[in-house]
Amino acid sequence: MPMKAALIAGVVVIAMAAGGFFFMKTSVTAATPETVEAEIAAPTGPTFVKLPRMLVPVFHNQRTVQFIELDLMLEVANDDVAEEFQENITLVQDKLISDLHSRFDFTAGERGGQVDSTRIKRKVAAAVASVIGREGIEDVLIQNIRQRRI
């Protein structure tokens, strides 16, 4: 039994010595800023742009009957489209509110009625496309829809 333990200990010592030898002989190069930048890939995938919260009034008989509060986010193709969107944010907001203002049915929210989210997504996509172009818009994400009756 002691002979077996001595043999196993000898094999372990030889393996550790060989590992240490190869570790010491391997050259290690320090990372330079150039190599780090080359190794880090630019982020790929969609870019998301959050729109400011919008309160859209719904009118009936020249009277506001409710407000619809929307939190929207756009999925755009890349950062260039996101920058263009940020530059034209006031024009996009104006177009969105004017288009949505005229599109809501005054009965939305009455007697258990719901606002049609797919309809809102289509209208938002069309309004944004009319300002910055359709080719950069991937999807419209609705984060929150809240109806407030007056």
- Low-pLDDT residue spans: none
- The rounded distance between the terminal residues' Cα atoms is 91 Å
Biggest sheet: strands, sense, closure?
Answer: 4 strands, antiparallel
- Secondary-structure class: alpha+beta
Shape: elongated
**How many individual helices?**
5
Instruction: Work out the number of β strands.
Output: 4
Taking all Cα atoms into account, the compactness measure Rg is 31 Å
The amount of helix comes to 40-55%
How much of the sequence lies in strands comes to 15-25%
Q: Element order, helices and strands?
A: HHEEEHHHE
Question: Mean pLDDT score, rounded?
Answer: 79
Summarize the structure.
By secondary structure, this protein is α+β, with helices and mostly antiparallel strands.
Describe the overall structure:
With 150 residues, the protein is α+β, with helices and mostly antiparallel strands. The protein has 5 helices and 4 strands. The chain has helices spanning 2-25, 33-39, 79-87, 89-103, 117-132; strands at 47-50, 54-59, 64-76, 137-149. Strands 1, 2, 3 and 4 form a 4-stranded antiparallel β-sheet that branches. Strand 2 (54-59) and strand 3 (64-76) form a beta hairpin. Helix 4 runs antiparallel to helix 5. The protein is elongated and about 100 Å long. The mean pLDDT is 79.
Top keywords for this entry?
150 residues, alpha+beta, single chain, 4 strands, 4-stranded antiparallel sheet, elongated, 5 helices
